[in-house]
Amino acid sequence: MEGKEASMPVILAVNGTVESYQPRSDGRRPKVPRPARREHEDEAQSDQEQAPDQTVTVLAARQAYAQVGSPQARKPAVLAQDIMSAPVQTLRPDTSLKEAWALMKTQGFRHLPIASTDGTLAGIISDRDLLRYSSLLENHAPQTVQQTVATIMATQVLTATPTTEIHELARVMLAERISALPVIDNHHRPIGIVTISDILRCVMLRAPLELWT
């Protein structure tokens, strides 16, 4: 349609380098390149690499993806910019684990993008990443005083743009078993975040509205 803004796919941001992400046509989960594991990282995986039994994530994503309907007159697609939380709270890589943990507890955040000094996305952490350290942080253990989020954050991050359509968000979340996607602008700066709760809320409020063209 003339004047319609083109939908952008989910993309993979890796240390400032952005690549297209295309789920496999056969429905199988594609392999997203991962960095070598750091010490303890197997026990404190990012929420962007969850176990495949995340029932809520799977059901919500499937529900959103299933809103295709019959090929009738198409309605405007729901985009990431329509459902994302914005502005998004970010942290610097040198933020201490203690500070990040306190922010998550007081503000109720489950995911926090990490922005470099120039504002571009450098990584992401989740409450799951910090749970392993929670008892140490609560007790002000010496080994966590100087530890920063840069030591545990995921640096390969699946992201969306403001014009990524909801079915693409749901498809990638389902394929990768993740529950949040940061939304970045043309300069790779995080401007919002879409969670599985946002998608599920949209499905409930807009059904039976066609979710994409």
Briefly characterize the structure.
The protein is of the alpha+beta class and 213 residues long. The chain is built from eight helices and seven strands, in the order ββαααββαααβαββα.
C-alpha termini separation: 11 Å
The counted number of beta strands is 7
In order across it, which strands form the biggest sheet?
Answer: 2-1-5
Helix content: 25-40%
Q: Strand-and-helix sequence, N→C?
A: EEHHHEEHHHEHEEH
Mean pLDDT: 76
Q: How many discrete domains?
A: 1
What is the class in the CATH system? Alpha Beta
Structural class, from secondary structure content? alpha+beta
CATH superfamily: CBS-domain
Low-confidence stretches: 33-46, 49-53, 68-73
Approximately how much beta-strand content do the residues carry?
15-25%
Report on the biggest sheet. 3 strands, antiparallel
Indicate the CATH topology. Answer: CBS-domain
* Total DSSP helices: 8
Overall form: globular
Radius of gyration: 18 Å
Instruction: Give the name of the CATH architecture.
Output: Roll
